[in-house]
Design goal:
CATH topology of chain B: Thiol Ester Dehydrase, Chain A
Shape of chain B: elongated
Distance between the termini of chain A: 32 Å
Helix content of chain A: under 10%
Radius of gyration of chain B: 17 Å
Oligomer: heterodimer
CATH superfamily of chain A: Hotdog Thioesterase
Structural class of chain B: alpha+beta
Shape of chain A: globular
Largest interface: A-B, 54 and 55 residues
Helix content of chain B: 10-25%
CATH class of chain B: Alpha Beta
Largest sheet of chain B: 5 strands, antiparallel
Number of domains of chain B: 1
Chain lengths: ~170, ~140
């Protein structure tokens, strides 16, 4: 995700920590956080994924005045039915995610995120037909231009819905 | 508290149950916090009728986030230098997941002692949903 300004805010960190079921006080209690070696509320290891909130064009968020592909009255809000494309719905599935931490991300940091294209490759899958993988490298830098986290995401598109479970 | 170098050896394991009977509401919570509102994770009608999946399923990043909680509880806050995973199986509502860390190496790098850790998260049937690795600085 390319983002010009991603302020790391305490309310956002608290909500994110709750959503992953993490009750560690260092994610919401400023007094406690100050008493630790970290000295401030820190972000959980996967928090930068929520930079999506600060990407004005992020395609997996409904936007005012635009059709949304999820259900409304009918099963999809897209009026014209587009054919083909296959399974996966919103642009494929997430296959891998990697983070290299250059330093601990803290509340008060203001990040930018810059994308660099990665590798692309194909593989024959067992259940979903041909699998098309693509890698994106995102560099998160702080207010001083210093690298904080390097994230590498791998997405996969499938020819038809690939489900591992039978539920 | 950070894990200390003299408290850990290769082969050590640590595990935690990271979710019990995963609710659709927790998946919605994750969508709201992360900003990933892909209907595949919360919109049953779209997911079954348009996308062709049997049910909504959790964001891979939710499983990675919950697994990360096990890691930070083990190695301490602010100690990770690397954390990476492959999403090996989808996680559906109702899942109960256990995340496990196994120390595979302890090494020196730029004056720090680093533990390399193998990460595996499995569901109640033993199906692996996350397979990954992490590295963490150990306290002296």
């Amino acid at each position: 995700m390319a983002v010009d300004k991603f302020p790391v805010e305490s309310g956002h960190v608290m909500m994110f920590a709750r959503s992953i079921g993490d009750t560690n006080e260092i994610y919401y209690d400023e007094d406690y956080a100050r008493s630790t070696d970290q000295g401030a509320i820190i972000a959980p290891p996967t928090f930068v994924q929520s930079s999506a909130q600060f990407d004005p064009d992020y395609f997996l968020r409904p936007k005012v005045g635009e059709e949304w592909f999820g259900s409304a009255k009918g099963p999809t809000g897209i009026t014209k039915k587009k054919e083909g494309g296959g399974g996966g719905g919103g642009g494929g599935l997430h296959a891998e995610q990697h983070y290299v931490y250059h330093r601990q991300l803290k509340v008060g940091d203001v990040l930018t995120a810059e994308n660099k294209p990665g590798k692309n490759w194909e593989k024959e899958g067992r259940r979903g037909g041909k699998l098309m993988f693509s890698e994106t490298v995102t560099e998160y830098r702080d207010q001083n231009g210093e690298l904080v986290i390097t994230a590498t995401g791998v997405g996969v598109r499938t020819e038809r819905p690939a489900t591992s479970g039978d539920k | 508290m950070a894990l200390k170098a003299n408290e850990v050896k290769v082969g050590d394991t640590y595990q935690e149950e990271v979710c019990d009977n995963l609710s659709r509401t927790q998946i919605v919570q994750y969508a709201g916090a992360s900003g990933d509102y892909n209907p595949l994770h919360s919109d049953e009608i779209f997911t079954t009728e348009v996308a062709g999946y049997p049910s909504v399923f959790a964001h891979g990043m939710l499983s990675m986030g919950m697994t990360g909680r096990m890691l930070t509880n083990y190695v301490g806050d602010g100690q990770l230098t690397y954390y990476g995973v492959r999403f090996t199986s989808q996680v559906f509502p109702g899942a109960t997941l256990t995340a496990k860390a196994t120390v595979t190496d302890i090494r020196e790098e730029n004056g720090d002692t680093i533990a390399d850790i193998e990460v595996s998260t499995t569901d109640a049937e033993g199906v692996e949903v996350i397979k990954g690795k992490a590295s963490a600085k150990l306290a002296p």
